[in-house]
């Protein structure tokens, strides 16, 4: 089945003046225009293509790679806006349309917006929406505490940052769990801290307990090596100074340097932490 907004691997069956025709396993044909046709093509070979509607609303194949695919989220730049809707640059010649009713705030040319790509059932067209929350569903959360997850920064809240979790759920990283600068659309790894009975998800950007010590300790070692084996911070230092250098809470920092000290990789004194040469 030829599905708009997706990558598909199709067989090249014939070539005409306008390009090559590809076929799926149901014998549905789609045109791959000449400009996307590989120079060394052969009849019978398979080609991975992306399917979308061209300027004449015909389903078309391209070997270009868009910035987003069907049923996913991405941060895209608005190129123009009018009373009907807005248009986004998604890496293809024909820009992606965002109806006015699908804009969380009126889009402005030159600004970037986090959007979701879906197939409109009435028009059979690919459409973007910046009302991303309605495409997330926490009614059945299939992740558990301390599972590693993929996150996309959605929008800030008075309590921290709302995150899209595994392209499916909405979760929250509380302010006191954040030790790095975050912007809308940022992608990062995180961990499930708690799934509440109502389906709400608490997140953290650091691994839990003993699992957090090793990555943090490794980070501190890298910083020490980059600074000639010494950094003027220790367990008595100001939390903001620690956060600025390591993007760690003071608690996590103390655990990490304690682990490094016990492993005889560093020494700690009133001036700061020193890397032992054998490290």
Give an overview in words.
There is one protein chain. With 279 residues, the protein is mostly beta strands. The strands form 4 sheets. It has a 5-stranded antiparallel sheet with strand order 3-2-1-4-5, with no helix packed on it. The protein starts with 6 loop residues before the first strand and ends with a strand. It contains 3 helices and 18 strands. The chain folds into 4 domains: 56 residues, Beta Barrel (OB fold (Dihydrolipoamide Acetyltransferase, E2P)), CATH 2.40.50.140; 61 residues, OB fold (Dihydrolipoamide Acetyltransferase, E2P); 57 residues, Nucleic acid-binding proteins (OB fold (Dihydrolipoamide Acetyltransferase, E2P), Beta Barrel), CATH 2.40.50.140; 66 residues, Winged helix-like DNA-binding domain superfamily/Winged helix DNA-binding domain (Arc Repressor Mutant, subunit A, Orthogonal Bundle). α1 crosses α3. A hairpin with a 3-residue loop joins β12 and β13. The longest helix has 17 residues.
């Amino acid at each position: 089945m030829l599905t708009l907004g997706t990558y598909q691997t199709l067989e090249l069956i014939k070539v005409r003046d306008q390009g090559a025709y590809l076929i799926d396993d149901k014998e549905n044909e789609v045109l791959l225009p000449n400009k996307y046709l590989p120079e060394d093509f052969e009849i019978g070979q398979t080609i991975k293509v992306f399917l979308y509607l061209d300027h004449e609303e015909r389903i078309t194949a391209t070997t270009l790679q868009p910035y987003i695919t069907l049923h996913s989220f991405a941060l895209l730049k608005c190129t123009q806006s009018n009373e009907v809707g807005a248009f986004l640059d998604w890496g293809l010649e024909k820009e992606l349309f965002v109806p006015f009713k699908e804009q969380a705030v009126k889009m402005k040319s030159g600004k970037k917006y986090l959007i979701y790509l879906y197939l409109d059932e009435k028009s059979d067209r690919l459409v973007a929406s910046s009302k991303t929350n309605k495409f997330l569903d926490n009614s059945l959360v299939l992740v558990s505490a301390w599972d590693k997850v993929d996150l996309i920064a959605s929008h800030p809240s008075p309590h921290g940052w709302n995150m899209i979790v595994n392209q499916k759920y909405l979760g929250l990283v509380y302010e006191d769990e954040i030790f790095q600068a975050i912007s809308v659309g940022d992608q990062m790894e995180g961990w499930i801290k708690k799934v509440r009975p109502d389906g709400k998800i608490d997140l953290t950007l650091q691994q839990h307990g003993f699992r957090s010590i090793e990555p943090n300790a490794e980070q501190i070692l890298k910083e020490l090596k980059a600074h000639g084996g010494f950094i003027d911070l220790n367990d008595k230092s100001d939390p903001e100074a620690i956060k600025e250098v390591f993007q760690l809470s003071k608690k996590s920092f103390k655990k990490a340097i304690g682990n490094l000290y016990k492993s005889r990789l560093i020494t700690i004194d009133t001036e700061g932490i020193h890397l032992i040469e054998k490290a």
